[in-house]
Design goal:
It is a single chain. By secondary structure, the chain is of the alpha+beta class. It contains eleven helices and 28 strands. It has a six-stranded antiparallel β-sheet, with helices on both faces. The chain has a five-stranded mixed β-sheet with strand order 1-26-28-27-25, sandwiched between helices. The chain has a five-stranded antiparallel β-sheet with strand order 2-5-6-13-12. Strand 14 (160-164) and strand 15 form a beta hairpin. It is elongated, with a radius of gyration of 26 Å.
């Protein structure tokens, strides 16, 4: 009926071939730099806020412990402290460019660009939309200066602002962080210029990466924030108590310290001296041992702790594992110059049914005990595919580690990179079985 290929035991692969943003953030118009010596030239041409803030007398501003003095006054407006955007951002080392045609201002610092709409609470950071919940960038008509809340002016570029209210006058301390330095260190990763690091606050994460497309529960004592809008920039960020406690990434745009990243040689990564306690690097044995994934965890729970967490939410976690397996596979395909596959609920139904059948029957094989093969199982569901490719894995406790097993087995790796159109994943668990955890990938094409 077709051609077969497989490998055994805990990882099995088979193939069958049948017979024949907001408006202000959009592109448009040229950038317009402010003329030297006339910082209000373009500001005055923009529509004003219809009002002005009260000058905040006596507030003292410090940057990394050194008092700094702005060319324009700090203001209070509706209970918030506002700083003059240009003079503050330039002290942070940023370039400020007015976009008169879009009624917005662009602030560029290193690999990060923030675009603020005048009189708007929305802004973008590297193209991702963010929102100032109770504030806006406003223009003070009286002095022709744009003002930004101190929190957003600092945190957008990785700085932290801290108020000290004791005594008079009030003081505001702005501190540099690893993110604001622009340099990547241990326990950090850059995704197309957007920074993620252990200990990062949830607010800092969403300002850098935007809001996740999905949030999954896990057996690691954290929630995975899934960023899969673009598989070229795919990452799973673990959040616990509103701080980043881990991340997993296998996309081609990952950046690490010492200008390392996806595809880096094993010797180069090992020579960089990364923390072995928190960072685990996965190398592709069939691509010259080059880096293809990073798994970072601040506090890696033991096997018993993970199992206990899994037992509390088995069905919820199994469904999350299925989607995560789909995500990491597409990121792997794009990193290897293959197009992403589409999710198939039909294939997922076949995959889950067969994962359950194997667990109940205590076996791991492409042939079921009654002799049916993957193509037979598809046709029993009314799917008459031209090509079916099936990957099986048993004994892996989550989607990422099942994926690792497949990548590091030549036939399974090749199976994930074949020119298929669709993919469905099934994950099943049965304590009283040989492998306990069962994963099934069903790829297929209709032509």
């Amino acid at each position: 009926m077709g051609k077969w290929a497989w490998c055994i035991p805990a990882l099995i692969c088979a193939a069958l071939i049948a017979a024949p943003v907001p408006a202000y953030a959009q592109d448009g118009g040229a950038d317009e730099d402010l003329p030297d010596g006339n910082p209000a030239a373009h500001e005055s041409a923009l529509p004003g806020s219809g009002g002005e803030g009260d000058e905040a007398d006596g507030i003292r501003l410090y940057l990394d412990g050194t008092e700094i003095f702005l060319t324009d006054p700090i203001q209070n407006r509706q209970g918030r402290t506002y700083l003059p955007l240009r003079s503050f951002c330039e002290l942070l080392g940023a370039e400020v460019v007015w976009r008169q045609d879009l009624n917005s201002v662009s602030v560029i610092r290193g690999r990060k660009e923030a675009v603020f709409g005048v009189n708007s609470g929305f802004y973008t950071v590297n193209g991702l939309v963010n929102h100032m919940a109770d504030a806006t960038l406003y223009l003070d008509d009286a002095i022709n200066r744009a003002y930004i809340p101190i929190r957003y002016g600092a945190e957008t570029f990785g700085f932290v602002a801290e108020w000290v209210d004791e005594g008079e006058p009030g003081r505001v301390y702005v501190h540099s962080t690893a993110a604001s330095s622009g340099e990547i260190t241990d326990n950090e990763i850059s995704i197309a210029g957007k920074m993620v690091w252990l200990g990062q606050t949830e607010d800092e994460l969403t300002q850098s990466m935007g809001y996740p497309n999905r949030i999954d529960e896990s057996a690691y004592g954290l929630q995975w924030f899934i960023y899969n809008r673009n598989y070229k920039e795919f990452i799973m960020v673990g959040v616990k108590n509103r701080r980043v406690a881990g991340f997993f990434c296998n996309c081609a745009s990952m950046g690490l310290k010492d200008e390392l990243g996806w595809g880096a040689g094993k010797q180069d990564v090992e020579a960089a001296g990364f923390s072995k306690e928190t960072m685990d690097f996965w190398y592709d044995p069939f691509a010259e041992d080059r880096l293809y994934a990073v798994f970072c965890m601040a506090d890696y729970p033991g096997a018993a702790e993970q199992q206990a967490a899994f037992d509390l939410n088995q069905e919820l976690l199994l469904r999350a594992y299925e989607m995560e397996c789909f995500d990491v596979t597409n990121a792997f395909r794009l990193a290897n110059a293959q197009p992403e596959v589409l999710y198939s609920t039909y294939a997922a139904k076949v995959a889950l049914a067969y994962a359950k059948e194997m667990a109940d029957g205590n076996f791991l094989d492409h042939f079921s005990p009654d002799g049916r093969n993957p193509m037979d199982r598809f046709e029993a569901q009314g799917i008459y595919a031209a090509v079916v490719l099936e990957n099986l894995a048993g004994g892996y406790g989550d989607a990422m580690h099942a994926f690792r097993g497949w990548v590091e087995s030549e036939s399974h790796r090749q199976g994930m990179l074949e020119e298929n159109q669709y993919l469905g994943v099934g994950a099943y668990y049965k304590q009283a079985s040989r492998y306990r955890y069962y994963f099934v990938q069903e790829f297929y094409s209709m032509s």
